[in-house]
Amino acid sequence: MTKPRVIVVVGARPNFMKAAPVLRALEKRGRVEPILLHTGQHYDERMSDLFFRDLGMPKPAVNLEVGSGSHAQQTAEVMVRFEAALAREATPPAAVVVVGDVNSTIACALVAAKAGILLAHVESGLRSFDRAMPEELNRICTDQLADVCYVTEASGMQHLAHEGKRKDDCELVGNTMIDTLLEHRVRARAHGDARRAEFGVADAAYAIVTLHRPSNVDAKAPLSEIVGAISTLARRLPVVWPIHPRTRARLAEFGLLDALEREVRIKLVPPQGYLDFLGLVDQAALVLTDSGGVQEETTVLKVPCVTLRENTERPSTLEMGGNVLCGGSRPAILAAAEKMLAVEKSAIGTPPAWDGRAADRIAEDLERRIDARTGRGGAS
Ligand code: UD1
Ligand code: UDP
Predict the structure, then answer these.
(1) What is the pLDDT of residues 335-352, one digit of tens each?
(2) pLDDT band at 274 (very low <50, low <70, confident <90, very high)
(3) Of 135, 142, 227, 235, whose CA is between 20 and 30 Å from 332?
């Protein structure tokens, strides 16, 4: 008998780390045939292909090659091309798995749900309660559509219950991005050593910066304020800043890039591969970020994190003591950096079930749901 097929969707950088262990767990158990589909939302070598090599992921079976565009263009293009890809299959897949909160996530979720395909959402239930964030809208809509919500932290279960999701459709499984981190942490050490040598920084004596949220980088005033804070901080601690393509484009457009490139204690570098970035963060004194995933990774690595936002959809990182919110003003960023530089690693906790086994739990649960839907006693 042929195995039920499960399409696992990826599109943008953070999706790869979340999907890789799910794909692997489904493959290892051998009861369904996982098929990796890339929407092509991110497409630069350093935002996409590099991660497939670092994570040992197979080349996607399908790449929709949607590329960049406005929200409507990008979301619509993914929908049109994903629907066509599904139509080319002889029979519909048994399930579609989407991860995270990017435009590719909601686009594929909507197509799968309307096609009546079992839809699973990995990293479900997170809420910033900030509807100005495109990701918040993507998360709310995807969770409403999903047949099963796989949740990373306790707050997610509460939000889904509050929004009327059935208890049986929500599973607190842990964090697949942390599965990936725990799998690769040791291997990443040598990568960190090599990058520190290349960038001229010493263990535990530098800060890492990542920034890409539109609210921080798409207008000149907030971006200038943040750049000012980072320049001041760099007098105290050298800074390594892997620059997201959105941010590089804005720095250039606002005339801020040349001055930054002349700062000797700020090392502007291209987006890093996963192992290089993990190796760098693991030995950093401090991380300043507006990334979602980096807040979680620093928590597990016990590296103090300053989040340049007013809110977070990941409150467990605050509760564990490794993360603090500071918004975007220069004094607030500098005060938060001082505060977090004084935090002892031993004071930072790890959220429950972030234990490296989230993907196994998801694979087991998803197979059970596929069996129940197809009436199979067990896929074989
Ligand atoms: C997207 C996600 C965001 C996620 C981030 C992870 C949405 C709405 N946003 O934001 O949630 O946190 O990815 O990194 O889905 N670009 C390139 N090369 C690439 C990709 C993008 O140059 O490979 C440039 C293009 O100019 C593009 C811009 O970056 O217009 C933004 O890309 P896009 O995917 O629209 O949003 P991100 O800011 O990357
Ligand atoms: N990351 C990376 N290289 C970088 C910056 C980030 O590999 O230069 C990884 C990081 O370790 C995490 C993921 O990218 O696994 C987070 O993605 P991003 O910050 O782009 O998106 P978000 O989490 O905000 O959606």
Answers:
(1) 999 999 999 999 999 999
(2) very high
(3) 135
- Catalytic residue at 184? no
Q: Which of 136, 180, 291, 300 to mutate to test the pocket of ligand 2 (most atoms within 8 A of CB)?
A: 291
What's the confidence (pLDDT) of residue 377? 63
Residue 262 pLDDT grade (very low, low, confident, very high; cuts 50, 70, 90): very high
**Strand, coil or helix: 284:** coil
Phi, psi of 376 (to 5 degrees): -80, 145
Do 106 and 152 belong to one domain? yes
CATH number where 77 lies: 3.40.50.2000
pLDDT in the model for residue 379: 45
Give the mean pLDDT of 292-302: 98
Distance 38 CA to ligand 1 centre (A): 14
Estimate to the nearest angstrom the gap between the alpha carbon of 177 and the chain centroid: 7
Domain span at 272? 186-347
Mean pLDDT in the chain? 97
Please tell me if the CB atom of residue 314 comes closer than 6 angstroms to any atom of ligand 2. no
- Are 15 and 63 in a shared domain? yes
Cα distance between residue 132 and residue 157, in whole Å:
23
Does 217 share its domain with 93? no
Same domain, 207 and 145: no
Q: Which ligand lies nearest to the CA atom of residue 45 in the structure?
A: 1
